[in-house]
Amino acid sequence: MSTTYRVSGMTCGGCARAVSQAIAEAAPMATVQVDLDRQAVTVDGADEAQVKAAIDAAGFGFEGRV
Amino acid sequence: MSTTYRVSGMTCGGCARAVSQAIAEAAPMATVQVDLDRQAVTVDGADEAQVKAAIDAAGFGFEGRV
């Protein structure tokens, strides 16, 4: 089951990659899709606490579920 | 003593923050300055292996010392 979160501070492809990598490092089995236009990240295979911790540590803003 | 590294893939302030945070997490005592125009990161208080690992894990390209 995938969950979509609002993530602030992503403005380019480098940001999107950084967020994806941070989540992948925290939860290696997760699949991650980043939608820059919507400032949204859809994650399958990681729980919300893992996603929040990874995004916070990467310097972006975890804004909860969409 | 600070060392400056070339880092590819940083295109905006979000990328710069992501790189800074990644290095800070790997080496909490380090100070980090990012120069987007030069695609350079200057680090004091972390060794090169730590910096490389952090940048790789964050999804950017570690290109060695400037």
TrEMBL record, chains A, B:
GO terms for molecular function: metal ion binding. It comes from the Bacteria. Residues 1-63 form the HMA domain. Pfam families: HMA. Keywords: Metal-binding. InterPro entries: Heavy-metal-associated_CS (IPR017969), HMA_dom (IPR006121), HMA_dom_sf (IPR036163). This is Copper chaperone. It comes from Magnetospirillum fulvum (Rhodospirillum fulvum).
